């Protein structure tokens, strides 16, 4: 009898579980990026997608229009709502067979993704004048969405986050660069702005790039190969690490009892939860956002790739193209911050990994619909996370205002164009000389010159109309010029719009990061 009752209990339990699973499958659902208080992109078809039971009919209603679709064999569905103008608030309703999702306070406006490493992650509460900035951050039509930091070995279809209106309560922990960028856009256009923040401090660009893209380029494939080996070796490495930690604990306990310093802890092995995992952040923090309609992306990253700056010449544009491929919207806008000045200033001209990384970033401007914001004059020698993020956000916004929103604003400082050698002088020409070339606070600094010996010396640099004339009594026949070619150059070269000139070199001699992969 007890055995029969046991079987009945098991059968009832299994039946109940089946009902729960069936109902879970039947319930129509959407990813977290679609929700109340969201901003949907104006002027473009608006993808709305999610899951339901295979074959289930779903009705999506927004702004007085209803579109119906059916879930596919795998339970996935997607529709594209028609283009809409900026406005709202609206209700978005998604009705399935057994449930209806209703999202309120949905706006239509401009949507931007903000990503990168720690300088993008840095929150508003860590920037200049933070108390005043936070107190004034009452922008009900700016909406914030911050993706929880996590890693995945396979592309995910959802992330942990929720939309919220920008207020003094919600903005302190949000990305400062993203907020200051969005604030400029909102004030200039007077339309809702949605900011999707997804970044992780200390991470390299390959973590934000899909496996397929990395594998497709022979110059990048080795990144995946090395990580595959690391993951394959991880179980044994973890066992060895656990054993080492156990031994360390014994030694540490004894040292404490004897009044001795604690020994150094063993280093944990890299594994599937490492934010450096190739494609790991793309899988967990970018893939779940696709194909949410966006105007573009802003990016602040590069410090973690500076030691491999030549590889970044391939990696960075590949990552941008990868995101564009994933979204399928074409070459959407992508603006990035050039690395700020940082660390000790050296007395003589020399090589620099950070200068080479900045050069790689500038090379990426060859891609369509890209732009850069310089921070070469607003960094901090003692802090890799400079607190002036207001100017960073503003300079990024100048790109968008000029290129997307057709405002008559200068968006770039002087960019090197060409060089002519005239006797013992090198004459440099520049693009983006808006308002003329300017030496702020005196004579031009950080120009270096060399001859055939390739030994650079500091040079005299003088503005002559739209050119800069560079010379040195130590160089009779100039061969190459460099400007701002250092981790922390003293840069005072601007245009009349108040935007700094980008560091550059006229030579293409192999740098110190060439071949480092």
Describe the structure.
With 517 residues, this protein is an alpha/beta fold. The protein has a domain at 415-505. 28% of the residues lie in helices and 25% in strands. It has 10 helices and 23 strands. The strands form 5 sheets. Strands 1, 3, 4, 6, 7, 8, 9, 10, 11, 12 and 13 form an 11-stranded mixed beta sheet that branches. Strand 17 (447-450) and strand 18 (457-458) form a beta hairpin. Helix 4 (176-189) crosses helix 10. The longest helix has 37 residues, at 221-257. It is globular and about 85 Å long. The termini are far apart. The relative contact order is 0.10. Mean pLDDT is 95; it is low at 1-24.
Describe this structure in a few short sentences.
The protein has 517 residues and is of the alpha/beta class. The protein has helices at residues 2-26, 118-121, 130-135, 176-189, 211-216, 221-257, 280-286, 309-327, 353-363, 390-403; strands at 39-41, 46-51, 57-62, 65-70, 76-81, 87-95, 100-116, 139-146, 164-166, 193-199, 296-300, 333-337, 370-373, 415-422, 425-431, 437-439, 447-450, 457-458, 460-464, 467-471, 480-483, 493-495, 504-505. 28% of the residues lie in helices and 25% in strands.
What's the helix and strand layout?
Elements: H1 2-26, E1 39-41, E2 46-51, E3 57-62, E4 65-70, E5 76-81, E6 87-95, E7 100-116, H2 118-121, H3 130-135, E8 139-146, E9 164-166, H4 176-189, E10 193-199, H5 211-216, H6 221-257, H7 280-286, E11 296-300, H8 309-327, E12 333-337, H9 353-363, E13 370-373, H10 390-403, E14 415-422, E15 425-431, E16 437-439, E17 447-450, E18 457-458, E19 460-464, E20 467-471, E21 480-483, E22 493-495, E23 504-505
Helix pairs in contact: 4-10, 8-9
